[in-house]
Design goal:
- The chain has 302 residues and is of the alpha+beta class.
- It has a single domain, classed as Endonuclease/exonuclease/phosphatase (Deoxyribonuclease I, Chain A).
- It contains five helices and 20 strands.
- Strands 1, 2, 3, 4, 10, 14, 15 and 20 form an eight-stranded mixed sheet that branches. It has a six-stranded mixed sheet with strand order 5-6-7-8-13-9, with helices on one face.
- The two termini are 27 Å apart.
Length: 302
Amino acid sequence: MKTILLSLLISVLFRTGEDCIMIFWNLENLFTSSVRFYEKVNRVAKHIFIASEGNLPVIIGVSEIENFQVAWRLVNVTALARGEYGIVHAESPDHRGIDVALFYKKERFKVLYRKFKPVINNEGELLRTRSILYVKGVLDHLDTLHLFVMHWPSKWGGVRASTPLREAAAAAFTGEVDSILAINQSANIIAMGDLNEEADLVSPMVRPLNILSPVKRGAPGTIKYNGKWETIDHFMVSANMVNNLEPVFCTDTSSFIYSHPHLLEKDRAFLGVKPKRSFIGPRYNGGISDHLPVVLRITRSW
């Protein structure tokens, strides 16, 4: 028993002051039936490693994956395998058959509870979109974190018609956040996802969380649509985590957009560059995703 307690103490002391890197990436229809699926998962793993600056991230959130088989392969048969990741995934009611998932380094994060919250509209009807993934866990045996991974409905069908769908997703999410804060106003909450909206439109829907404005490293946004760069992939944190108010915290510069020449291609229609997507319609385009990933570094103050 003394040996176990000593090992735990050494582990805690060793982790004190060590940063926690998190990444979110929309992987653009990562299906086993896709052309060159195995090549794509290996390239995804490579860029996750590079984006985390040579240290495998503690938490990885993804969207647009097909199923558990895809999730398992991504972290077990690629360069990510040495991270020994656990997987949180469930099939969603999405009409396209795409899901969200969370991967966590078992060495540093212990899952205590997981939940998949369906999105319900004002009429009480289940929306065939991605569920809200919620995970409660402990980082480095010290800090309880509440994590969310989301992929809100797109603007397909027009902004006016689709806005209520995103508002329903926001309501499902903030309902969970309110429940957490009702129990503990100082809870460490971190949410990530493709919300299909810029920060100024998302912010009123996700109060009291703070949307982090990512530092733009080589790309002015996470997607490019009709020649315009937009940042629709976000990290959000509870107010107490900003600027060293808690043992684990982040600052205004803790988040950044990861860009790499291999993730971009020339934008022949609108000039400049754009994310190199996997497919253009049915045609294989050779890229990884039409989104760039966002990275968050959480720091421990003691």
